[in-house]
């Protein structure tokens, strides 16, 4: 199906839809949807959705979504989402999300999230989060977080956090935290913290802390602390 400006499309299984400006598309099983500016797309199982500026996308299990500026994408399990500037992405289990500037990503278990400048990432168990400058990251059990400058990271048990200059890190049990200069780190029991100059570290029992110059280290019982000058 191919439609023009402001059109509305509804298709059955295995269909292909191409729409113009401000259109609305609804497709069934294994369909492919391509929409223009300000469009709204809803697809069934194993769908592929590509939308333009300001569009809204909702897909079922195993779907792939590519959206433009200011769009909102919601996908089910095993899906892949790529969105542009200022977009919002919400996905289910085992999803892959890539977002641009100022975007917000929320993913389920075993997800991979990659976001740009100023973005906010929230993920489930065993996730991997990579964010740019000034981003916020919150991850659950067993996750891995990599963030840029001035970022904030909060992770659950058995997680690994790597942050840039001026970042703040908070991790749970058995975590590993690596931060740049001027960062602040808080970790639970059996954690390992490595920080740069002027950093502040606080760890629980059986922790290991390595810090650079002018750093401040506070640890619990059975900890090992190695600090820099002053």
Task: Report on this structure.
By secondary structure, the chain is mainly β. The protein folds into 2 domains: 1-106, no CATH class; 113-230, no CATH class. Helix content is 0%, strand content 37%. The strands form 2 sheets. A 14-stranded parallel sheet has the order 1-3-5-7-9-11-13-15-17-19-21-23-25-27, with no helix packed on it. The chain is elongated. The protein starts with 7 loop residues before the first strand and ends with a strand. The mean pLDDT is 81.
Low confidence ranges: none
On the 0 to 100 scale, the average pLDDT is 81
User: Number of domains in the coordinates?
Assistant: 2
Major sheet strand order:
1-3-5-7-9-11-13-15-17-19-21-23-25-27
- Beta-strand percent range: 35-45%
Task: Give the termini distance in whole angstroms.
Answer: 70 Å
Secondary-structure-derived class: mainly beta
The total count of helices amounts to 0
Describe the sheet with the most strands: 14 strands, parallel
Q: N-to-C SSE series?
A: EEEEEEEEEEEEEEEEEEEEEEEEEEEE
Rg estimate, integer Å: 21 Å
Number of strands: 28
Task: Assign a percent range to the helix content.
Answer: under 10%
Q: Name the overall outline.
A: elongated
GO molecular function, one term: ice binding
Pfam families: Ice_nucleation
Subcellular location: Cell outer membrane
Function: Ice nucleation proteins enable bacteria to nucleate crystallization in supercooled water.
């Amino acid at each position: 199906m191919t439609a023009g400006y402001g059109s509305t499309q509804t298709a059955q299984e295995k269909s292909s839809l191409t729409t113009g400006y401000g259109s609305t598309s609804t497709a069934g099983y294994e369909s492919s949807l391509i929409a223009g500016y300000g469009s709204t797309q809803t697809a069934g199982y194993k769908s592929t959705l590509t939308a333009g500026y300001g569009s809204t996308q909702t897909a079922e299990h195993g779907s792939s979504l590519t959206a433009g500026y200011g769009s909102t994408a919601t996908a089910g399990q095993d899906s892949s989402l790529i969105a542009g500037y200022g977009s919002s992405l919400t996905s289910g289990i085992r999803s892959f999300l890539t977002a641009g500037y100022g975007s917000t990503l929320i993913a389920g278990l075993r997800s991979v999230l990659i976001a740009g400048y100023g973005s906010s990432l929230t993920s489930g168990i065993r996730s991997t989060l990579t964010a740019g400058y000034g981003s916020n990251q919150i991850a659950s059990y067993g996750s891995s977080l990599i963030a840029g400058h001035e970022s904030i990271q909060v992770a659950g048990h058995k997680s690994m956090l790597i942050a840039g200059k001026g970042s703040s890190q908070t991790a749970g049990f058995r975590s590993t935290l690596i931060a740049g200069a001027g960062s602040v780190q808080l970790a639970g029991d059996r954690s390992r913290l490595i920080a740069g100059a002027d950093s502040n570290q606080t760890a629980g029992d059986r922790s290991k802390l390595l810090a650079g110059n002018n750093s401040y280290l506070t640890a619990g019982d059975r900890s090992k602390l190695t600090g820099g000058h002053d």
